[in-house]
Amino acid sequence: MRVLGEILERDFGDRVTTKHIDVVDDNMDQYPEVEDYLRRAGMQLPLLVINGKIIRPGTGLNYKEIVEELEAMGFKK
Fold first, then answer.
1. Which of 21, 11, 17, 77 has the alpha carbon at shortest distance from 47?
2. 10-18: Cβ within 8 A, 24+ apart
3. DSSP letter string, 26-61
4. Which is nearest to 58 in space by CA: 42, 69, 48, 44?
5. 1 falls in which pLDDT band (50, 70, 90)?
6. What's the rounded Cα separation, in Å, for the pair 68 and 38?
7. CA dihedral angle for residue 2, residue 12, residue 50, residue 58, rounded to 10 degrees
8. Cβ 21 vs Cβ 44: under 8 Å
9. Do residues 51 and 73 touch, judged by C-beta distance below 8 A?
10. pLDDT of res. 10
11. Which residue(s) pair with 50 in the sheet?
């Protein structure tokens, strides 16, 4: 995920920032939408969160699909 995040940041510039969150070790109070989702739905990892919205939980992280999600939300390369 970290490499994918670097590629997305390169392609979208400062319009997109990425962060890897370790749901076991990180302070989840900083990510209430993720903490709430994990409590309700269980551990369907990885989670992709864009602007607080959980996208495609438990599926692989595919660059093309993430770009499509970002573009549908109005982000431009």
1. 21
2. 11/67, 11/77, 12/70, 12/75, 12/76, 12/77, 15/75, 15/76, 16/70, 16/75
3. S-GGG-HHHHHHHHHH----S-EEETTEEESTTS--
4. 44
5. low
6. 25
7. -40
8. no
9. yes
10. 92
11. 53
pLDDT tens string 22-70? 888 778 888 888 888 888 887 777 877 777 777 767 677 788 988 998 9
41 conformational bin, left if phi > 0, alpha if psi -120 to 50, beta if neither = alpha
Structure tokens at 67: 């770009």
Query: In this structure, what token pair is assigned to residue 68?
Result: 């499509």
